[in-house]
Every structure is written in C-alpha cells, then in structure tokens.
Amino acid sequence: MEVKQVRLIYFSPTGTTQKVLENIAKGMNCENIEHVNLTLPEGARQKIQTFSDELVIIGAPVYGGRLPADAINRFKQIKANKTMAIPIVVYGNREFEDALLELKNLAAELGFNPVADGAFIGEHSFATKDVPIANGRPDSLDIQKAIDFGAKIKEKITALKSCDAQMDLKIPGRFPYEGGVRSMVVSPVTREDICTVCGLCASVCPTEAISINGKVVTKTELCIRCSSCIKNCPTGARIWEDSAMKNIASWLNENCSIRKEPMLFGIDE
Ligand SMILES: Cc1cc2nc3c(=O)[nH]c(=O)nc-3n(C[C@H](O)[C@H](O)[C@H](O)COP(=O)(O)O)c2cc1C
Ligand code: SF4
Ligand code: SF4
Questions:
Q1: What is the pLDDT of residues 53-98, one digit of tens each?
Q2: Radius of gyration of the chain (CA)
Q3: Is residue 235 part of a domain?
Q4: Which residue has a Cα nearest atom 3 of ligand 3?
Q5: Nearest to 116 by CA among 162, 76, 151, 69
Q6: 58 and 161 part of one domain
Q7: Domain of 128: which CATH number?
Q8: Is 15 in the same domain as 53?
Q9: 171 and 202, same domain (yes or no)
Q10: Which residue among 63, 139, 229 has the greatest number of ligand 1 atoms within 8 angstroms of its CB, and so is best to mutate?
C-alpha cells in the first residue's frame, strides 16, 4: 500500500507529543501531512472522520500511567474506517504503564487498524530549570529514533496488500487498566509583580481554566496540571507554589533521572 496522506491527531499541552509525531511523519517522507491539534478547548468540540487511504499518527502524553481524560474525550469524536494508525504516547521518564495499551485499544474501538506503536520520552510537565526531569527531551537522539521509526513504518505499510491486514501487536500494560492521575485541586499561581497581563497563558490552557480580568484569574477546579501556562509564559510569572506539587517534582527529579529510551512495537528494530 502507498501512504498518500498522513494525519497527525494529538493532545499535547506542552508540545513534546506534537514534536515526536512530526518527526515520525518526517521519516515517512510523505508530501501531504495534515495536523489535527485537539489540545485547545475547541478540540473537544471537533468531529473528525478519517479514511481508509490515509495513515493517522495519534498521540497523547501519559498522565498517572494512563491517558489524560481530556485526550480520551477528544479522541472519542473521531470516526475511523479501517484507517491505519500509529498510537504514540509520550511520558516524562518515569513510566508509561497502561497508557500505550489504552491508546491502542481506544484506537481500535474508534475503527482504526493500529500497525505500530511507540512510547517516547518528553520533558516532564512538572520540570523546571532548577528541578530538571528529562529536560530538553525529545532531544536529537529521540528525534532520530522517531524519524527512523517513521521510515520503517513506511516500509512495513508499503509491503501490505490492504489497510485491514490484521496486526498482532503485543503492548505492555494491564487490563483492566490501573493508575490514573491523583485527584488534586491545585493550579499554578501568577506572580503579579512580573506578569504583563499579555493573556498568553489563557490562550494555551486546554481547559479554559484561565481568564483575564485586569489580571490573571484561574479556576483551580478546572486545572489538569498540564503546565502549559507555565512553559509558555514569556516572563516566568506562572509558577507552581503548591508544596505537594513541589514535592512531586523533587521526587521525580531524584528518582527518575536515569535516562529511558523510546520503546517501539510492530517494526523490526
Ligand atoms: C498530571 C500529569 C501526570 C503525569 N504523569 C506522568 C506519568 O505517570 N509518567 C511519566 O513518566 N510522566 C508523566 N507526566 C509527564 C508527561 O507525560 C510528559 O511531560 C509529556 O512529555 C507531556 O506531553 P506534552 O508535552 O505533549 O504535553 C505527567 C504530567 C502531568 C501533567
Ligand atoms: S502568560 Fe505570563 S505574563 Fe502573560 S498574562 Fe499569563 S502569567 Fe501574565
Ligand atoms: S491552568 Fe492548569 S490546565 Fe490551564 S494551562 Fe495552566 S496548568 Fe494547564
């Protein structure tokens, strides 16, 4: 089969998942690449139809060893018709636990035919310069792995006779799924002394938790702790002040510093 069009469908608050998907697509060397970025609130309202003559790379970060609830809700709007898919999760160098299995199964329920899967590493959402956790990842080595993975997937698909050829992908994970994010009603705070009220934080928040009313106002109960507002703030005015969040980041920094490598399924490495 020929790959005529590649669609990247993703939920990616801090952009690492998006970067991995873009580089897998780059390795496929296909001219038609379309982005369907479901991260922002309008993503939750978007209905998507995919077709049997295209390839979809679908990706989300790992939250608590599972898929983020907002990613699942957005992906459930997709209708696929035997569309070949590459489910990808990106995690912050702790573990991906059941998330990749969950994404592969969800993709199959939506009508996709998963042909290969991958778990990549991205800078942890809770990482800072002072408390690094996989900072700078995906780095050049990860990017090269993503490109090579894309090239191998293309080879695999080119050898297939039809898009519904059954794949037997063994993905690690438990079913019923376990884990999930700890329920915590917390959100980043704004340092008003250095905030310029530019509004960028509000425009990148996936859950509309932030509004601007002369100053930054956060509805803490809507916050999913994605840290997009922090990583996108041009003046460094958005920060985690909550002591439990700071403790989690310190624990990750101390216990998850040994570099993990991407795990790829469905291709010969
Ligand atoms: C609420 C929350 C929970 C997370 N849970 C995990 C986890 O269980 N394991 C892990 O390694 N990383 C975890 N992370 C880190 C993200 O998976 C990682 O930073 C990822 O690269 C973010 O993807 P994005 O840049 O596409 O948003 C978590 C992040 C958040 C915000
Ligand atoms: S992005 Fe930063 S500087 Fe801009 S409004 Fe938000 S907190 Fe203030
Ligand atoms: S307020 Fe919460 S949900 Fe919104 S961008 Fe910031 S961390 Fe993410």
A1: 899 999 999 999 999 999 999 999 999 988 999 999 999 999 999 9
A2: 19
A3: yes
A4: 223
A5: 151
A6: yes
A7: 3.40.50.360
A8: yes
A9: no
A10: 63
Percent of the chain with pLDDT over 70: 100
Domain containing 152 equals 5-176
For the segment 111-167, what is each residue's pLDDT rounded down to a tens digit? 999 999 999 999 999 999 999 999 999 999 999 999 999 999 999 999 988 777 777
How much is the pLDDT for 268?
Answer: 83
Pocket test of ligand 2: the residue of 212, 228, 238, 241 to mutate, having most ligand atoms within 8 Å of its CB, is 238
Cα 76 to middle of ligand 3, angstroms: 22
Query: What is the number of domains present in the chain?
Result: 2
Find the CATH number of the domain harbouring 244.
3.30.70.20
Does residue 233 have its Cβ closer than 6 Å to ligand 3?
A: no
Give distance in angstroms: CA of 158 to centre of ligand 1.
Answer: 33
* pTM (predicted TM-score): 0.98
